[in-house]
Q: What sequence folds into this?
């Protein structure tokens, strides 16, 4: 399966002046598209594909692969600096990235994000590179029952992600699930809570809700408090500490590795999506790291976890895409279209007939990660200055861009209305200590949970398959254990203390 | 502050109850998740409200969970004034876009915001910045992406 | 001070207004003088999108210089949002759409919609893509007969509204199955069948082609094609299985439509441009490369085919109703 000479050929194609130039251009385009809220790696690919019509397929892959590879890091930048994920998968980066900015440590967060996403991306691609034939069976192991269990596990993370009282976290999560029921019932043809409004038929879209809750909520707060994000005090420039972030990530290679593997496996399962990958690995980090009290208030490990996972997941998404012709993510679907456009047949045969193109694609994504990290690190200090500006200057611009981004998603003014409403809701939730992330998780997972539950009931085994399928049962038990673990460990500690005192 | 929070909680409770009641009209399988989640939220909200009105319930719950229930920042009078103003500006931004479309609303909103809300005098900020932003949006969305942006109610009616 | 604010705001307001309306006001006399909007119900990067963008760029070669065809994605509600905005657009020949014909008309038969497919002006047809009944290649079912005899079959679909015709076709040749709805697209449904949660899939030939060629799926029957497809010569059509009438109404009709009552000279101009674009060798080559088939029909023929199609749908309205209303 692995052909060293083909790899060398692809490498030699890439390392020409033309190849590097193309890759550099692709990386810049990817970074810009990733960083602007509302545009994404997918839009970058769609804009670039027509331009590649006349190109040599290898060069075309180089351009597309690098634009696509750079977009995920691009999305982390606004997530860290202004609480606005540039793309949905960067949502978990907000959790610790933005608090770091508030502490005046944007540089550190940006450095850590760049390093972690490069490492995550490298890991994901390398695993995909060598193990695609071996691992593709994993794609088939996840049925409706497993999907339900994974979403339940995801919902149970609300308990870990919530800061402050759990009661409010549960309410926020429940509201999210309620909102996820809006729209067309996918199993029947029934309309729920649409009030005759057409734009609600497909439900409340995640991206407008994300912009509303996180970005608009934060804009309101900044305008009301009138202080720059990083405050006015503090002597250090917010952009310094970039190398601290890099070192911090390298020091925690094991954590990066673990989070990358989580991201990779989420990527393998088509339909779960990168946003979930970020949250899963964030929670993993929070639960397994020592001194985890600082998570959510600006712990650089949170940024590392989220960024490593959401870049590694793209490597995972390559498995179903190249192995079965089933796109593992939205960007992969578009990339698949680009491949067929250049005469590459998708499916198992791709490894025999078009190995050079596959290697080219992988190498260009790899190269883009490194380029993007380089550019990101070089510009981090300049970009971090935004946290020192008076909010009244950049917030109205950000507001307009977010509204524009929500609109272009589906060319619908309805989504702009959703953004505004969720913005006001997000501000109130923030003010009264409700977790906005919990609401987001509910909204994100509620739909999948409902559909996969009802689909499981339709299968031959019916409800029994929740317990009879080994993976499903394992995830269920794991969920229960991880939910009760804090209470059990606290109980044991208390017992031990009592024991000692005796 | 306490009162505001209660209003917010009652509002959420109202939403949850209405959505639960509406779900009764759905067919049996469509009803399941909306009803369950609606009921869950409603019960939790009632409990949270109870802790606000009855201190002994709050004490009991705090001992049970071990974390403090209330963690809300209190606002100064000036901040509260700005809160209303900013909400107004948000809704104003939407109405501007709705009436005039993005390409007109963006410069107008930015100019008005800088001039009236933020009180900037410099021409660079109030005129040049909105101009640059509009130009960038025009190039990115109309020239490169060829996305037809919303044109606004007013122009739809006139033209 | 106040005055200057108002003056500047007014300038900022008027300037873009004049700029945007300039093109429309000055050049409104001869058609086409401004950009044509092509509103789609499909997401960027999908099948509808690929067809539309490729044909749109070919159309620009046959339109006066400076007139572009702008593709606008308005996904949502199973193409209904896109269709109703095409339907209610001004019939000036500057708006066109690419409706998902079967699904939209089926819904219109039973519930009032914000569009009326019987009234729209048809501009052309790109392809009538038949559906293929296929099973995973390691399946125990080798032919249609096996499926007819099988008990407790599971078939994954996207939704009952869009695939009522599939269910009707299956039952007409005595294949009894339970349908698992809620799959986001054909790929997800194929995956469900590959991992053994379902026994057979029924999707358009265009979307299953790669899986069949790759040996992951085995085609058993062809719904909605008068002749066998040369790439899968062993697969019988619905007519050969004894249901010639249903053959005409099943499949994905990739059609191009405009709002009702486009002025006749503009309509024929637009139809001609689309016809030329679809027959453009470069456009066909691009679609071929993207693995998308094309079998163009001109506007008048499309009008006939669609009128006939809707007539036939109305004839099976009663038979289709239970599948449309089905609940799980």
A:
């Amino acid at each position: 399966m692995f052909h060293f000479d083909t790899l060398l050929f692809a490498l030699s194609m890439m390392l020409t002046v033309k190849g590097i130039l193309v890759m550099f251009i692709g990386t810049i385009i990817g970074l810009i598209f990733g960083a602007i809220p509302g545009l994404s790696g997918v839009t970058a690919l769609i804009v670039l594909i027509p331009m590649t019509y006349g190109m040599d397929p290898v060069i075309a892959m180089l351009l597309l692969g690098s634009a696509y590879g750079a977009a995920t890091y691009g999305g982390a930048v606004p997530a860290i600096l202004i609480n606005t994920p540039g793309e949905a998968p960067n949502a978990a980066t907000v959790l610790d990235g933005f608090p770091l900015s508030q502490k005046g440590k944007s540089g550190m967060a940006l450095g850590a994000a760049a390093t972690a996403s490069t490492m995550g991306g490298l890991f994901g691609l390398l695993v995909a590179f060598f193990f695609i034939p071996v691992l593709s069976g994993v794609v088939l192991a996840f049925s409706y029952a497993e999907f339900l269990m994974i979403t339940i596990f995801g919902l149970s993370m609300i308990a870990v992600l919530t800061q402050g009282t759990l009661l409010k976290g549960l309410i926020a999560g429940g509201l999210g699930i309620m909102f996820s029921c809006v729209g067309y019932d996918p199993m029947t043809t029934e309309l729920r809570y649409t009030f005759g409004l057409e734009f609600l038929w497909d439900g409340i879209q995640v991206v407008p809700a994300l912009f509303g809750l996180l970005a608009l909520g934060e804009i309101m707060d900044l305008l009301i408090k009138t202080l720059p994000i990083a405050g006015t005090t503090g002597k250090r420039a917010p952009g310094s500490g970039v190398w601290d972030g890099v070192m911090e990530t390298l020091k925690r290679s094991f954590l990066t590795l673990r989070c990358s593997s989580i991201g990779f496996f989420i990527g393998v399962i088509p339909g779960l999506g990168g946003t979930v990958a970020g949250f899963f690995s964030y929670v993993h980090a929070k639960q397994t790291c020592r001194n985890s009290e600082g998570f959510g208030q600006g712990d650089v490990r949170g940024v590392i976890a989220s960024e490593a996972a959401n870049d590694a997941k793209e490597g995972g998404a390559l498995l179903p895409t190249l192995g079965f012709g089933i796109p593992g993510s939205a960007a992969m679907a578009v990339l698949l279209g680009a491949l067929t456009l250049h005469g590459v047949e998708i499916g198992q045969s791709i490894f025999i007939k078009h190995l050079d193109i596959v290697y080219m694609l992988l190498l260009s994504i790899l190269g883009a990660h490194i380029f993007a990290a380089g550019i990101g690190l070089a510009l981090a200090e300049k970009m971090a200055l935004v946290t020192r500006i008076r909010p009244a200057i950049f917030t109205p611009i950000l507001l307009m861009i977010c509204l524009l981004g929500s609109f272009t998603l589906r060319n619908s003014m309805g989504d702009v209305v959703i953004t505004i409403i969720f913005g006001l809701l997000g501000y109130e939730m923030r003010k009264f200590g409700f977790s906005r992330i919990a609401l987001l998780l509910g909204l994100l997972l509620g739909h999948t949970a409902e559909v996969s539950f009802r689909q499981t009931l339709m299968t031959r085994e019916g409800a029994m398959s929740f317990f009879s399928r080994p993976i499903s049962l394992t995830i269920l038990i794991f969920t229960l254990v991880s939910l009760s673990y804090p209470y059990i460990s606290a109980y044991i500690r208390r017992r031990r203390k009592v024991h000692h005192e005796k | 502050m306490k009162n505001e929070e209660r209003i917010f909680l009652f509002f959420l409770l109202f939403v949850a109850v209405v959505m639960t009641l509406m779900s009764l009209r759905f067919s049996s399988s469509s009803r399941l998740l909306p009803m369950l989640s609606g009921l869950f939220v409603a019960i939790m909200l009632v409990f949270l409200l109870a802790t606000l009105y009855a201190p002994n319930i709050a004490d009991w719950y705090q001992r049970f969970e071990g974390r403090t229930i209330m963690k809300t920042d209190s606002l100064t009078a000036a901040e509260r004034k700005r809160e209303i103003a900013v909400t107004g500006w948000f809704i104003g931004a939407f109405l501007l876009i709705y009436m005039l479309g993005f390409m007109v609303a963006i410069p107008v909103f930015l100019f008005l915001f800088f001039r009236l809300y933020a009180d900037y005098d410099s021409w660079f900020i109030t005129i040049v910045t909105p101009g640059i932003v509009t130009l960038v949006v025009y190039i990115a969305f109309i020239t490169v992406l060829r996305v037809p942006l919303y044109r606004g109610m007013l122009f739809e009616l006139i033209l | 001070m106040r005055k200057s604010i108002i003056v500047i705001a007014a300038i900022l307001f008027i300037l873009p207004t004049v700029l945007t309306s300039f093109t429309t006001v000055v050049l409104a006399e001869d058609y086409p003088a401004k950009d044509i909007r092509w509103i789609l119900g499909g997401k960027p990067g999908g099948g509808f999108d690929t067809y539309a963008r490729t044909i749109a760029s070919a159309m620009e070669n046959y339109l006066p210089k400076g007139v572009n065809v702008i593709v606008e994605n308005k996904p949502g509600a199973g193409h209904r949002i896109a269709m109703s905005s095409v339907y209610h657009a001004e019939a000036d020949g500057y708006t066109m759409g690419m409706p998902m014909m079967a699904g939209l008309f089926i819904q219109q038969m039973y519930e009032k919609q914000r569009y009326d497919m019987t009234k729209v002006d048809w501009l052309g047809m790109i392809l009538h893509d038949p559906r293929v009944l296929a099973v995973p290649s390691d399946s125990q079912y080798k032919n249609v007969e096996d499926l007819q005899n099988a008990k407790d079959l599971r078939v994954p679909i996207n939704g009952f509204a869009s695939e009522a015709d599939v269910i009707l076709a299956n039952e007409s040749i005595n294949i009894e199955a339970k349908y698992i709805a809620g799959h986001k697209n054909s790929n997800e449904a194929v995956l469900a069948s590959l991992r053994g949660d379902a026994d057979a899939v029924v999707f358009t030939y265009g979307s299953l082609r790669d899986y069949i060629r790759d040996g992951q799926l085995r085609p058993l029957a062809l719904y909605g094609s008068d002749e066998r497809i040369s790439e899968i010569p062993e697969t019988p059509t619905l007519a050969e299985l004894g249901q010639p009438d249903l053959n005409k109404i099943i499949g994905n009709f990739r059609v191009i439509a405009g709002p009702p009552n486009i002025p006749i000279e503009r309509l024929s101009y637009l139809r001609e441009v689309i016809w030329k674009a679809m027959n453009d060798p470069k456009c066909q080559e691009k679609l071929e490369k993207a693995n998308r088939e094309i079998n163009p029909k001109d506007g008048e023929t499309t009008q006939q085919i669609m009128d006939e199609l809707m007539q036939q749908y109305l004839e099976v309205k009663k038979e289709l109703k239970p599948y449309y209303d089905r609940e799980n």
